[in-house]
Amino acid sequence: MGEQVNYDIVISGGGLTGAAMALAVLKQASTPVRIAVVDSALKEQATGGFDERVIALSYGSVEYLEKLGAWTNLKAHACAIKNIHVSDRSYYGKARIDCQDYQLDALGYVAPLQAIAQSIYTELEQVAGSNHQLDEYFGNGIDNIEWQKHQVVVQLQQGEMISAATLLACDGGQSRCRQLAKIDTINKDYQQQAIVANVQTALPHHNKAFERFTKTGPLAMLPMTENRCSLVWTLTAEDSKSLMAMDDADFAKALQQAFGDWLGPFTRIGKRQCFPLQLVHAKQIIQHRLALLGNASHTLHPIAGQGFNLSVRDVACLASLLTNALKRGEDPGDYPLLNRYQQQRQVDQFTIIQLTDSLVHCFSNQYLPLVLARNIGLKALNYTPGIKRLLATTTMGYLQE
Ligand SMILES: Cc1cc2nc3c(=O)[nH]c(=O)nc-3n(C[C@H](O)[C@H](O)[C@H](O)COP(=O)(O)OP(=O)(O)OC[C@H]3O[C@@H](n4cnc5c(N)ncnc54)[C@H](O)[C@@H]3O)c2cc1C
Q1: Which atom of ligand 1 is nearest to the CA of 45?
Q2: Quick check: CB of 56 below 6 Å from ligand 1?
Q3: Cα–Cα distance measured from residue 269 to residue 241, given in angstroms and rounded to the nearest whole number
């Protein structure tokens, strides 16, 4: 076994959150920093190589990616959402949120997960340059952690030992770091799955996103470049199984029935992928020389498209605390510093987790009084600018603690 390599920061997980965190630190650091990004998956897989998911980026996330320099590469792959149309299939309740009401060019942008990851990594390589040390360990995740007073020593799956002043867990919903730190979680299995696919329709989407509440579950149609749309259809496990088994023609028919004619007939159905949906919420997001970010801290239902947007705000907060500490020559794994991160993130995380969970319960339910209440609610939303603004600004990612 080779010598132990020392870093300032070890990031466990090189998915969107881990990569964004590495970039944010290196971009803002005014002194050289040593970072290791460690992932159990191969790089192609960790950066979404086989993932059809697209991410609806809030306006706030786009501004932050722009600040990090990752938006320049991503822009060409992103499609603006100019308005959002929310409706309940078979009922009259409808609500519209329009970017013009907020004097904005767009409410947010939709981009493939793969393109976001590649843009972040491209910028990361540029920024790392000769000034900093950035080592990547892909296909070689974290196996074990030893917490010492002034550092954490991490054992990788292939046996190497690396150490750092602070360990950032961005290793997803089943976070190995979180388990090793024995941090408890609140878990909720929604007993639902999301079918994700890129589709094409006869009519142009005109940059409109649709959120439609159907008998089988919520269905989102997000505008993409080249007049494609990304479908995210939430279903029970049983319904999802039978829809996944259908051929494209039958699937298009079932989709048409659920979505309606807003965009005309579905002319092309891309590869379908299925994701089980759950809530995982860590009861604490720090421990001695450890901080949790992204899905490791909060894995959300995609109904409101908030998972990564919330992670971006985790990254922005912690990167700024860490780089300020490094600039002053202070210990980046210091407990009071990590505690400031936990305190500053509490309100935003709690609000978004509650909002998302309430939407799942409200809109996955066919209990008639609730259906009527949410239809009245959707109508009322159009005529209650205060509530509409609150919902819009929260989901656009402006909410700050
Ligand atoms: C269907 C669907 C649609 C979504 N739509 C949106 C949306 O529109 N907007 C939005 O904001 N969010 C959305 N999300 C959420 C978003 O996809 C995630 O929040 C985002 O991908 C960030 O994930 P992450 O990097 O935190 O975790 P992950 O993507 O899970 O990455 C974790 C990484 O850790 C690695 N790892 C695992 N174990 C180890 C180990 N022992 N050691 C080291 N590494 C390890 C994994 O290989 C992986 O690369 C959606 C999610 C789903 C399921």
Answers
A1: 49
A2: yes
A3: 17
Domain check: are 105 and 204 in the same one?
Answer: yes
Closest CA to 26 of 377, 398, 333, 315: 315
- My answer on whether 152 and 207 are in the same domain is no
* C-alpha span between 25 and 18 (Å, rounded): 11
340, 43 contact by CB (below 8 A): no
Looking at the domain assignment, is residue 28 inside a domain? yes
* Ligand 1 pocket member 196 (CB < 6 A): yes
DSSP annotation of 3 reads P
Range of the domain at 316: 5-65+113-186+280-360
Q: Could you give the 3-state DSSP secondary structure of residue 218? A: strand
**193 and 172 in a common domain:** no
- State the pTM of this model: 0.92
Q: Which of 308, 318, 345 to mutate to test the pocket of ligand 1 (most atoms within 8 A of CB)?
A: 308
Within a domain: residue 317? yes
The tens digit of pLDDT for each residue in 336-392 reads: 999 999 999 999 999 999 988 888 877 665 555 555 555 555 555 555 555 555 566
Atom of ligand 1 nearest to the CA of 110: 8
* Pocket perturbation via mutation, ligand 1, pick of 10, 53, 281 by most ligand atoms within 8 A of CB: 53
Q: Provide the Cα torsion 135, 137, 142, 144; round to 10°.
A: -70
